[in-house]
Structure formats: structure tokens, C-alpha cells
Amino acid sequence: MAEKKFLPSWNEEPLRKGSYRSIFKLGRPDEFKHPRGELIEIVKHEFGMSDVDFQKRQFEGHETVTLDRKPGLSDGQIAKFKEIVGPENVSLEDYDRVKFSSGQTLREVVDLRHNRIADVADLVVKPRNKHDVQNIVRYACEQKIPVSVYGGGSSVVLGIAPRHGGVVLVMNAHMNRVLSINELNQTAIVQPGMMGPDYEEALNQAPERFNTRHRYTGGHFPQSFEISSVGGWVVTLGSGQASTYYGDAYNLVIGQEYVTPAGSFKTREYPASATGPKINDIMKGSEGAFGILVEQTMKIYRFQPENRQYFSFMFPSWDAAVDASREIMQGEFGMPAVYRISDAEETDHGLKLFGAGGKRWFESLMAMAGKKPGERCIAMGTAEGEKGYTRHVKAQIKKISKKYGATYLSGFPARKWEKTRYKEPLMREDWMDYGIIVDTLETSVTWDNLHRVHQEVRAFIKGRPRTVCMTHASHFYPNGTNLYFIFMLKPDSWEEFSKFHAGIISAIVQAGGSISHHHGVGRLLAPWLENYLGPEQMAVLRVLKNHFDPQNLMNPGGLLALEPPAAER
Questions:
Q1: What is the pTM of this model?
Q2: What gap in Å lies between CA 117 and CA 68, rounded to an integer?
């Protein structure tokens, strides 16, 4: 009888009401995704750990949230906000102030696990509509009260933290609906606080809810889909897993309405217009630094899942996978929706994650095909749209992949990945309960600098002993793609990890990558922004900030490197 492999005691305790863990835990309270035994063995081997290291969980965050900071607003100011939105939509509770001041940046999670609270709002306010937002901003400007915005709380770049206190507006409490669908224009007007699954469900059910002829999809499926808001996608320039076909959030939003200290405005929804630089484009990615997004008009697409084609391939090398991918994206026969290639380290770990790596039958098949562990790279994806189109795209991808030595693996791996694609991040809590950190950084690259960025950044990460680095490209364009670095380690201290993390960002920039592809900038990446953009472009952003928000009240705290010097505040 085979010896039963050791598995740690994973935490499946019900979340305690008002606890720190209930703030940072990903997914539903009762939802878990634990690492497979194969991954445990990899981690023990890579980090020099044993079963003993998985005997006791640490810093789980079960304690009740408590604040030692009283609100910095007067009774009269608090009363005014209650008058604007109703007393039931205002909270001074410690838990609410911390929850709605927190995102999912690793630094925030570590702080909450240690019961540390860095930045917190004085007051939580839940606007009911855009008129409430107008009144809130008007009063905040009169009283010089900072205003921060909470959408879905999924920011991983310190995009929420209200460093200067003030009020935080919780947009997903009430401003969370599809207001209308224009079937002739194939657009939807959406409130910014609507969460991803609710938005997609509303579009899928458009005939029942809006009396349309067709069902629709938004086409935007980031890994944070279940915990992010539609407005958050736009103001952070998010990208979804199907963006190769549907486009990034930048491409999907064609009209926006904002409330700013300088006034409210709505951009027009024409498909194109030659009327100078487009304010609609300027506001995309503004991260709340210029004003508050209160409505947006989004492109929508016909929902045709019955036509979806799945495919997966194993390439003999990373070079072959990249070359084939470039030819696919430049082939002008149509674009796949989902398309991903994993480098050798991610491929080998991914195969074990899904239970295939190391299996005798699978390894025999791969050996016969010349696909060696440590070299082979998996690609997978889908084609979406009209039936003839999806078949054609898949056929062309198969033809090109075969040309570069790929072995077709059927659509099964892509289907299996799709089934669990939003659940993989849930393992973060399990790892962190035992002192292991998993974090990510992503960058945009052109085809001609992809290999340099991949090699140099991996060299930096792997230069730290006992560190896993998995890399994939998952958002493709004719002129380039992105690289998504997932690194896993057991640091000696937070200070050591923080220095290592900053080193990775510097390595990305020095190798020629962008400082962000789809996570936004926030405060985390702001220190690199000015050198990345240059003084002239930064000057433009600062002029815009000064126009829209001369008192620096909108999401202040250093987002987009727009915090003015202390002497000017």
C-alpha cells in the first residue's frame, strides 16, 4: 500500500465576524481552493521545508478589527454627509473604516494579518446615485475633505489607501446596475460599482431584463473578475483574459461621466470624432485622481458560447511558443479570445497543479513527441464569435503551431483551466498561513524586447536562492504581448521581501518593459512613473490634476505620482 502523503491542516474555519481575515480573504467566505499535494512537494523541495514547517499556522488574522484613531471630522461634517446620503448610508464603525480603506496589495494583506492598520478613512459613505456624488464632492471641496473611492476592493497596487483620511465612497453598495442597453448601437450604460459577475449575468440575460433580441457579453474577464467592479476596470486600464479578441478596458469604454471638483461632464459616445485630443481617453486610467466616475458606456458583444472553440498545444521550447504566437497575432485571419503561453517553469509546475505532470502515460506521450521537462511550454486558448469564424481561427492556429513543432493536446487543458481560472488566487491564504508569499508583477513588451525582459527579470528573481518564478504571456497584440511574472518565496522578513519586490520592478524597467500592463499604478508603482514617462508627460498629468482637483482632494496619497510637495498642500 502506497504511503499517504502529508497534507497541511488548511484553514476552513468560518470567518469570524468583524475579523481582519474577513477583509483580506479572497473569494466567498465559504470558498476555498487548497494546493494539491504535488505543489506541497515542490514547495518543500524548493524552499528547503519539511512537514514540520506546515504544522502550525501563523498570523491568520482572526482577531477583531479595532482602531485607535477617532474620525478626523467634526460632528457637523458627519451630520452633513448623513444629510446628503441618509444616515443609513454613513458608517463610523472601525470595521467598515478599515474594510473600505483596504485593497488586496500584498503589503495591505501582511499588515492586516499582523493587525496593523496603515491608512484609513475617517468616514464611510455609500452614495445612492450620481447626484449624491455631486453633492458629496461639492461639500468636500468646501470643507477641504479628501475623497477616496472603493469599487470592488481588488487593487494590488495600493490604489485605495486613503493616506490623508477623509471620506471613502463605496460605489458598489448602490451604484451597481446596468441602466440601459442600446441594441442598435450594441452598447450598455453601466454604473461603476457593478461587480463583474453581476454585469456579465445582466448582459447574458438581456432579453429577459431589457427586452433585447440577443444575449450579450461584456468580453472582460480579468482573474479578479469575481471581486472587481466595472468602473475599476476602466479607471485602472484593466485587461481581461479574453482581451486579445474583445480588447482591454481602454478599448471597451466609449463614453464616461465624471464628477470632479472643477465640475461634472459626460463624454459623447460617437464611435469616432476628429475633435482634438479625447477627454474620454484622458480619463481612462486616471485612478480617481481627477474625479469620480459615475457612469460609463461600454461596448457589448453577442453572447455565443455554443460556438466557442478550445485548443491547447505543447511547444518544444519557449522560443518556438513565442515565434508561433507572433505569427498567429500578425496573421490577419482573426484573433483568438483567450490565448496564453507559459514558459518552461510555469508549464512544469502547472502540469503538476492540474495533476498531469509526472504521470507515466503523459510523460511517455511527451517523450515520444520530443517535449522535455524544463524546456516544453504549453499554450492554450479559445476562439469566440460566429461559428465559421471560430473554426477558421482555430484551424489557422493549429496550422501555425504545427509549423513550430507543437503537439496538439485537444481542448481539454483549456477547458480545465477555464473551469478554475478565478479560483487559483484563493490558495494565497493557505500559503501565507505558513509564511510563504506568492505575488505577481506584469509588464507590457514588444516582440523585439520580449526575450530580453523575460531573461533578465527571471535572472533577477532566480538570483534569490529558493525562489520559484513562473511566467506567462496572456494578452496579445500584433506588435507585442505582456509578461506576467508569478514569484513564490519564503522571505526572512517583510523588509527583505519589500526590497526584493522593488528590485523586480527595477529589473523590468531596466530591461525595457513597462512598469505596468493591466494592474494600474497606484502608490505601489508611483515611484517609477516619472522616470518611465519622462518630465514632459508627467507635467501634462500634473496640469490635468491641478485643473480638475486643485486642492488635491480626489484620491490623494501619491497615486500616479501626482502628490504635490508638502509645502504646496
A1: 0.95
A2: 10
